[in-house]
């Protein structure tokens, strides 16, 4: 691990913009960018590491007795770690999952936790494809594989998942645009019809809604929405779902107070060719942070929300020459996996003036390429963050005051 390297904070403020038109349809080439300045890792220390390769997403679980556990996608499946001794994580199990990756060394897996169950999705289909359900109630002794649920459209591959834990609603990214009909035969898409990264073309994709509340081990299909639009990722908080629309080069916000009939609140574009990758709202719901993975090296952006009016671009930021990958938020703090630059924490108390308050590099890589820290998870109200690094495995990080 590289504990000393260069930190570049690129901040572009656009508080004077009143909408997407004046912001150049999602940011413009004349947006001022601060001069890069050198620094080193700060505000965080590495507590422990568990080495793995082929690593993807991660999440955390806090048991009823307050014990902490980590979950991480690996080349084999899902690694479950006992973190009760943070300096010495114990491997509880590494549960087998699908492994037929089309790209050597990359095993797309994302996961969320609802109650004492974990839900894992993957782009792979050969073993336990679909929504894998794990029962975590036996921890620290064991983890139980429950079953895998076939998505409603009949395809097993899914890139991302999110859960509204307050209501027990699971939102599933789909490459297809329409749900399968009850009793209708399901035709498996030919390999020639599917890209290697199944997030859908600009006009291909949707989100499925599943109810977990009644029976967490037997999810109930509710509906499909945002049809015929590329979907890469979504975040469900309260009455709203925030969607990163991938190859459609746009983001959207949906009202899901009635999950049977989600309604579009607002959609806004980014520049043509920018891949709308990830989105997460602030705790008070007044702004969102987004990341655009392609072209490589684009900064994360901060948008002020204004109901059904077009959001205002407030600022942008990134670390060094890297590419921000995923962001999660707690209140007005943003926590990012930043590929070659490791993990970072950004204070957005003033969303027009982002301030990086912690950074810990987890790999020896440099530049904008898509290698290094894949995902982060922040344990709520605690100074502990997890980074899953593609080639270097599980990293437990303590954030300093």
What is the CATH H-level superfamily? YVTN repeat-like/Quinoprotein amine dehydrogenase
Order of strands in the sheet with most strands: 1-22-21-20-19
Sheet with the most strands, sense and barrel status = 5 strands, antiparallel
Give the DSSP E fraction (strand runs of 2 or more residues): 35-45%
Shape: globular
| Count of individual domains | 1
Please identify the structural class as seen in this structure: mainly beta
Give the count of helical stretches.
0
CATH topology assignment: Methylamine Dehydrogenase, Chain H
* CA radius of gyration: 20 Å
- Indicate the low-confidence ranges by residue numbers: 1-38, 181-195
* Overall pLDDT metric: 87
Q: What distance separates the N and C termini? A: 23 Å
Query: N-to-C SSE series?
Result: EEEEEEEEEEEEEEEEEEEEEEEEEEEEE
CATH class: Mainly Beta
Task: Give the number of DSSP strands.
Answer: 29
What level of helicity do the residues show? under 10%
């Amino acid at each position: 691990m590289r504990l000393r390297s260069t930190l570049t904070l690129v901040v572009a403020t656009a508080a004077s913009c009143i909408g997407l038109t004046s912001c150049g349809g999602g940011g413009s080439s004349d947006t001022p960018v601060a001069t890069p300045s050198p620094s080193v890792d700060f505000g965080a220390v590495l507590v422990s590491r568990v080495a793995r390769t082929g690593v993807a997403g991660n999440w955390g679980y806090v048991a009823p007795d307050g014990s902490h556990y980590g979950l991480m996608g690996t080349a084999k499946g899902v690694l479950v770690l006992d973190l009760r001794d943070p300096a010495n994580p114990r491997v509880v199990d590494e549960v087998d999952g699908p492994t037929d990756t089309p790209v050597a060394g990359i095993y797309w897996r994302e996961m969320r936790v609802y109650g004492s169950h974990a839900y894992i999705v993957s782009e792979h289909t050969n073993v336990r494809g679909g929504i894998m359900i794990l029962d975590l109630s036996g921890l620290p002794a064991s983890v139980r594989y429950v079953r895998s649920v076939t998505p409603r459209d009949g395809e097993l591959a899914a890139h991302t998942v999110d859960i509204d834990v307050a209501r027990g609603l699971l939102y599933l990214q789909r490459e297809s645009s329409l749900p399968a009909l009850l009793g209708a035969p399901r035709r498996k898409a030919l390999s020639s019809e599917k890209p290697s990264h199944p997030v859908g073309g600009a006009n291909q994709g949707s989100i499925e809604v599943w109810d977990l509340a009644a029976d967490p081990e037997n999810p109930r299909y509710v509906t499909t929405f945002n049809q015929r639009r590329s979907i890469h990722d979504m975040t469900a908080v309260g009455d709203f779902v925030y969607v990163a629309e991938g190859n459609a080069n746009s983001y959207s916000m949906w009202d899901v107070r009635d999950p049977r009939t989600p309604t579009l609140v607002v959609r806004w574009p980014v520049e043509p060719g920018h891949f709308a990758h990830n989105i997460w709202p602030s705790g008070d719901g007044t702004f969102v942070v987004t990341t655009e993975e392609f072209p490589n090296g684009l900064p994360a952006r901060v948008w002020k929300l204004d109901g059904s009016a077009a959001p205002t671009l407030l600022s942008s930021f990134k670390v060094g020459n890297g590419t921000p990958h995923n962001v999660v938020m707690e209140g007005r703090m943003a926590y990012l996996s930043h590929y070659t630059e490791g993990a970072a924490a950004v204070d957005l108390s003033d969303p027009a003036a982002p301030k990086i308050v912690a950074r810990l590099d987890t790999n020896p890589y440099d530049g904008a390429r898509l290698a290094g820290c894949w995902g982060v998870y922040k344990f709520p109200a605690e100074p502990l963050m997890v980074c899953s690094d593609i080639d270097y495995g599980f990293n437990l990080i303590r954030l300093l005051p």
